[in-house]
Design brief:
Low-confidence stretches: none
Function: Functions in the N-end rule pathway of protein degradation where it conjugates Leu, Phe and, less efficiently, Met from aminoacyl-tRNAs to the N-termini of proteins containing an N-terminal arginine or lysine.
Number of domains: 2
CATH class of the largest domain: Alpha Beta
Keywords: Acyltransferase, Cytoplasm, Transferase
Helix content: 25-40%
Radius of gyration: 17 Å
CATH architecture of the largest domain: 3-Layer(aba) Sandwich
Strand order of the largest sheet: 6-7-8-9-10-5-11
Family: Belongs to the L/F-transferase family.
Pfam family, one: Leu_Phe_trans
GO molecular function: leucyl-tRNA--protein transferase activity
Structural class: alpha+beta
CATH topology of the largest domain: Aminopeptidase
Order of helices and strands: EEHEEEHEHHEEEHEHEH
Mean pLDDT: 93
Distance between the termini: 31 Å
């Protein structure tokens, strides 16, 4: 079942959504609604060219990486030891999200449009979204961004201008979270890239218990 949202700040029970995870249509991208959504594992995802209303998803099988389980391949270890790149956190959120948007803006199903970019920038301004940047000298060559609530990170998008830059960003994020009590990285969707780095599926009810831990 797909629910129509109005101005009320609420979401239906995610268990009642469609098999593909589609739960609701409508609402807005305010910080308050986004925080409520992510606290239940619900996220906006829609092609802004073809949908006038926002689509909200909450799959019942969640593809995640536990920070302690991130896989670092031999080639990545070699890359990291060479010191070609350095990694920072929250040093250039605006440029990271701009690069992520530009990378896919010409794709038919592009979802990171102007409204979504504005929404995540507002979340970042209020401390609820973060970025990881990969630099070669003073050039930004890769990175990722996502939503941060409690001890969990909800990944949204990543980009690479050089081979393995986004992998390097994800590894540094996982190591940082593992060292600082982080619980889970929500990858939203499975990709071979993320599976190779330790991603796996867990049931939504188990996922919910983790993301709602204090």
């Amino acid at each position: 079942m797909v629910f129509a949202l109005d101005t009320t700040l609420s979401f239906p029970d995610p268990h009642l959504g469609e098999p593909d995870g589609l739960l609701a249509v409508g609402g807005d991208l305010s910080v308050d609604r986004m925080l409520l959504a992510y606290s239940y594992g619900i996220f906006p995802w829609y092609s802004f060219r073809y949908n006038r209303e926002i689509l909200w998803y909450c799959p019942m099988q969640r593809f995640v990486i536990f920070p302690s389980e991130v896989h670092v391949s031999h080639s990545m270890r070699s890359l990291m030891s060479r010191g070609t790149y350095h990694v920072t956190f929250n040093q250039d959120f605006d440029e990271v999200i701009r690069r992520c948007s530009r990378l896919r803006i010409k794709e038919d199903g592009a979802w990171l449009g102007v409204d979504m970019v504005k929404a995540y920038r507002k979340m970042h301004e209020q401390g609820f979204a973060a970025s990881v940047e990969v630099w070669q000298s003073d050039h930004l060559v890769g990175g990722l961004y996502g939503v941060t609530i409690g001890r969990c990170f909800f990944g949204e998008s990543m980009f690479s201008l050089v081979p393995s830059a986004s992998k390097l960003a994800l590894i540094h994020l996982a190591h940082y979270m593992n060292d600082n009590g982080g619980l889970l990285i929500d990858c939203q969707f499975e990709t071979p890239h993320l599976r190779s780095m330790g991603g796996r599926f867990i049931a939504y009810d188990d996922y919910l218990k983790i993301i709602q831990q204090e």
